[in-house]
Amino acid sequence: MAGSGNRFIVIDNRNRLIEDPKQFAKKECKSKAVDGVLLVEKPKEKQTDFFMRIVNSDGSEAEACGNGYRCVGLYAHDHLQFPKFMRAGTLGGPIEISVNSPRAIKVKMVNPTDYRERIEITPSPLPLPLRGGEGKGEGVAFINTGVPHVVIFADGLDKIAVVELGRTIRYDKSFQPQGTNVNFVEVTGNNSLSVRTYERGVEDETLACGTGSVAAAIIANLKGFVEAPVEVLPKSGEKLKIYFNRSGNDITQVYLEGPAEEKSKGVLAV
C-alpha cells in the first residue's frame, strides 16, 4: 500500500503469521522500494480494535507512522471488515482512524510533546539559508509527534543535500540513543508548506512522512509562519492536511488527513 509516497507491506498478523517481523522487514525491504512493514495484531488495550506494529526497513520498530496509519485504516476496512471508524493501539499511544474515502482518510494523532523552539547542533552541519537567520532562533527546532523530529526552516528545498545533512543530524549526540527524523521545510503560503524528510529507520530521504508533516505544520504555526489548518506538500506531490487546536504553546486535537492506496496484493506462503 502507499500513502502520499510512502510504500508499505501491510499484513494481517492477528494469528502470528509473521513470527519475526524485524527479520521479515529487513529481508523484504532490501530493494528500498518499500519503506517498512505494517502489521495488524490483536489488541493489547481495551477500547482499541487492534494493535498496529510498525517495522522500518532496517528492522527497527517505530512508535508512530502518520502515512502508515492511513494505509492500515484502509486495509483494515476493505479487507478485515473493520468499520469506517476504528481505534488502533501503537507503541506511541492509541490513535483513531476515519476512512471517509480512499482519498480522505483522517487520523487523530497523539498530542505532541517535548517542543524545543531552538536547538543547537555543534558544529553546525547546515551550510544553507535558514529562514530568518540562525541567530534569530527561527532556523532549527524539535518536537515529538509520536516520534522525534528536527524541523529546519530553509529557503530553496531543491538545493538541500537532504541525505547528507539529514544523516549527520540524525546521528548527532544530542539525539542519542534513539536518534531523530529530520525535516527541511519551506514556507510557501499563509497556510502551506513544502517538506523534504530524512527518515530514521529507512536511513534515507523518503517521498513523504506523515509525522514529519505534522511536526513541520505545528512548529511553523508556533513560530507564526502559518495558520491552521496547514496544507503540506511532500516530495511525492500528494498533499496532506493537518488540523490542530492551539492554546499558547499547547497543541491538542491533532489530525492528519490524506490519501491511501492499495498497489498490489498477494498470499504469503509459510
Describe this structure in words.
This protein has 270 residues and is α+β, with helices and mostly antiparallel strands. It folds into 2 domains: 2-108, Diaminopimelate Epimerase, Chain A, domain 1 (Roll); 113-257, Diaminopimelate Epimerase, Chain A, domain 1 (Roll), CATH 3.10.310. It has 4 helices and 16 strands. It has a 16-stranded mixed beta sheet that branches. The longest helix has 14 residues, at 66-79. It is globular. It starts with a strand and ends in a 12-residue tail after the last strand. Mean pLDDT is 91; it is low at 133-138.
Give the termini separation.
21 Å
Q: Which range best describes the helical content: under 10%, 10-25%, 25-40%, 40-55%, 55-70% or over 70%?
A: 10-25%
Global mean pLDDT: 91
Largest sheet: 16 strands, mixed
Radius of gyration: 18 Å
Task: Chart the SSEs and their pairings.
Elements (H helix, E strand, L loop, with lengths): L1 E2 L2 E7 L8 H8 L7 E6 L8 E7 L9 H14 L5 E5 L5 E7 L2 E5 L4 E4 L23 E5 L3 E6 L8 H9 L10 E9 L2 E8 L4 E3 L3 H13 L7 E4 L6 E8 L2 E9 L12
Parallel strand pairs: 2-3, 4-5, 10-11, 12-14
Antiparallel strand pairs: 1-2, 3-4, 5-6, 6-7, 7-16, 8-9, 9-10, 11-12, 12-13, 14-15, 15-16
Quick structural overview:
The protein is an alpha+beta fold and 270 residues long. Helix content is 16%, strand content 35%.
